Batch of 2 targets.
Target 1
Amino acid sequence: MNWNCGTSRAPLLLLLLLLGACSGTRAPTDQGGGAVLTEEHPDAMRTPGWLEFGDLSLRTAAAGKDPRGAHVHGWLLGGVFEPLGDIIGGEGRPPRGRILNPGFLELRTRAFVKKADDANPTPPYVEGWQDTETGGFYPSGSVQRAPRLATAPDGARSGS
């Protein structure tokens, strides 16, 4: 009879020992979790940057590049943009020979809303033209921070 059973049981004993050690470890449950935010969007969560109208790209100031063409400075929070000022450079008529759609660019989401009497873009927005080939935008005015007044059927302006 072979009584040399110590080598065959060693891995099993080691496994049981490790399982017992892992099951006995508990994390304290009285730990707090996460940060407490005292304002809606603290500065630490926002990144200074700008929106370039030529290609609707969001750029961060940390990238170290200068804005190109028409742009507006503001804060970036995830994929959302919050403008701080007005458009810098590039205002006016778009170049000739392009296929353009008149409308509004909603600055927070960079969504384009085609111009119509009942168009209701979400502020802040800019009126202008969308280039159908490049997707860029040519602003024709200032940043609007109030809701647009819809035109009534008789041509009068009314609040929406």
Target 2
Amino acid sequence: MLIFFIGLVHVVGFAPGPVPVTDGSDGGAEMQWNNGVEPKRKKLKEQDFLENNSQISSVDFFQAQSVSTGLGLSLDNNNNNRMASSGDSALLSLIGDDVDNELQRQDAEIDRFLKVQGDRLRQSVLEKVQANQLQTISLVEEKVFQKLREKEAEVENINKKNMELEEKMEQLTMEAGAWEQRARYNENMITALKFNLQQVYAQSRDSKEGCGDSEVDDTASCCNGRAIDFQLLCKENSDKKELMACKVCAVNEACMLLLPCKHLCLCKSCESKLSFCPLCQSSKFIGMEVFM
């Protein structure tokens, strides 16, 4: 909207424009125009002044009018520019507010997106770490179980070997007992044989000392002594056979050593039939054959 403002200018030769007059009653100002109001005398003086001094053409008047109009247009342009600048500034402020809101919204969306992505990344990392930990724990458990199985197998082998050694020790103990019994039996036999030999030697010596003075008596005594020695030997052999005979059948030679009583009193056939010792009546654990 263009506002035309025509400024009031004071043109030489014309009376001045409206002059404020204060009457002092109400303090107001009244505008009065000089043309048509002043007295005739004043009009005549003005006409003389205008005729004698100078005249202003209509061109000058219109030029003054154009100058005042240009000033008004320039003022209008300034006002328009000022109003346009104020409108632009308001528009820019509105656009700036929208841009700020949009930037804030985008920042919030970016922050939310980054938070979601960070949570997902953290969750994936935690899942991978847990999976690795579980895999490591499973591998360690498998190795531990394998070691335990190996140790259990070793313990079983050791226990088996211990049992075998114990059985072998029991067998060796029994064999040692049998050999000890046989050694004692042999010692007893040696002692008995020595005693028998001593008796035979004593009897032969007594027979030699009791010989007669004549040769016939000596011959007779010698023959009688030999006969006695033969009888003694036969008797000893028979006693030995009776001593070595089986105490059950009395036919076969006793060759089985009974444990734990350690009596040599049964033959091989009778030992398989009896479960006790015929001498001490104790229960038989095992019978071992003794080679004489």
